[in-house]
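Q: What would this chain look like folded?
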Amino acid sequence: MDAYSLRYSSSQRTGLLGGFQRLRSQRQMCDVVLEAGGVSFPCHRALLASSSAYFWALFGESTAERSAGCISLPALTPEGLDAVLDFLYSGWLSVSQPVLPAVLEAARYLQVAPAVSICERFITDGLNTQNCCGYANLAEHHALAGALEAANQTIAMEMRALLQDSRDDLLQLNIQSLMAALDADEIPGVKELELVKLALDWLKGNGPLPLLKSNLLLSHLRFGLVAPCDLTHLSHAHAAMATPLIRSQLTRALEYHRLGSAQPIRQSRQSTLRASPNRVLLVGGGPDADWPERQMLAFDPQSRRFSPLTSSLPLRLRNHCVCSVGGFLFLIGGEEVTEGDDGGKTAAAVAASNQVWRYDPRFDRWERAESMSEKRVQFSCCVVGDVIYAIGGRQTPPDARTTVSLGSVEFYDAATGAWRRGAAMPHPLHGHASVVLDNSIYVSGGLVGSNHGNNQHDHGETSREFWNLNGRVWEKRASMSIGRFGHRLASASDHIYALLGMYEPFCDIEKYDSQADHWTRLRPLLIGSFNYGVVPAGPGNLLVFGGRRWSDGQEVIVKSVLEYDTKRDRWKEICRLPRPLTGTECTLLPLPD
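A: My prediction, written as structure tokens:
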């Protein structure tokens, strides 16, 4: 068999189209004329049939148009037909926002799929606040699934600007896009009441709708995020709000508002904030370790930006604990710092607290919760399921000058709003750390105190011990390699990480494998610090905020935000705090933008 060579020439394909384009522009060998809006377009039947499923069928053997010299296309505009014909002859589609509807209509009508795809990409790539509503309607009309989804997402993310500047565009939205926007988990900067009003105004302008459709639209609203007084008013705002289904949703929302302490454990989609779940909340602390501030900062790990919350802490606290349950923030115990008088001079007065406060980001509101049974400072708290545990700590008993370590444990029952006694620690402890892994509590380090309550907090023995609460029994696990006090524990990638505590000379960190019951030394920090905030963020990462360190014999408050990659055992500084910060406590909490 003789050898042969098969080669492809792209210039031949390009030249073929170029030749047809020259013949068309010179009106030579054209055997059919297309007409739209009074404008004639001489064309070549063979090229049309080979490029369009519509023309292939139109010029078939059994159609009347097979030999017709002129074919009228009244459904198309001259601009749209001209653009699609240029595409068939050259491979280039000229499209802009003003002519996009006409071009897309022609491409759809003539069944030129590549041109339709180009129009869809044009929509997706060019979405912004000004055109997203119009593009959503266009994509919905032509069943462009990808462009429609992208437009609906843009509408949700730009809802705040649209409500302010383009409300009429929202009121002309197709119902599918409006429902998709109202179903979004993130709608930055918009109160739920504004979305309810938008939906009702849309119904007034586009109704009356069948009961099924109006119910479906309103069911995408989250009535649990609307204040009770507004809910009562809304029940009479529109006939669609009086249907049995919507009235039952309003009733459930009012019942949710009456739950009180049980709200965190009775969350549903109706009461879940439309917000990113990744926000880190930095609670308290400040540039002065002895005079903490009442501020709260939100940190977005993606943009690495800080923003202050409008609400401030109800108390000025240090050595407190924070945690989040059901989208609520709990502020627990610590030392309340107030202005006192020291021989005519203003000084800080410090008193241990057992107070518990709950912050609801839905309505930017603090409420007093049931206080712990004991005042606690330098204790630890953690959450198992929906239950908050407060473990150990220290306090100063009445009529005593010495501080006492605590071995007691109590947990918060949200269903009843009360604190109950848990299994006591094997011995009193403060300055320790705790963490939850696989729904099990682990406690490490701290200063061990006596059970008789006569020890001062700086006279104890720094502990290396590591304990696990198994049911109601504390079990001893493998000890850390060094004793730690005022340190942090964090869980990530199915391991527990012990980070630096106060006055540790070697900056060592280590991780614990619960299956092997074994600690492993990791890469140390170059510069040690303590009194910082830490939180798990992202898959296998830990974030460390601020803190204090020693520099040239002086204590310095730092601004650094460090990220520890647990998989690579690597530290790096990712950004800086707006100002020096020590003594802050961190938790993850969904927050409205």
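The domain at 280-588 is CATH 2.120.10.80 (Neuraminidase).
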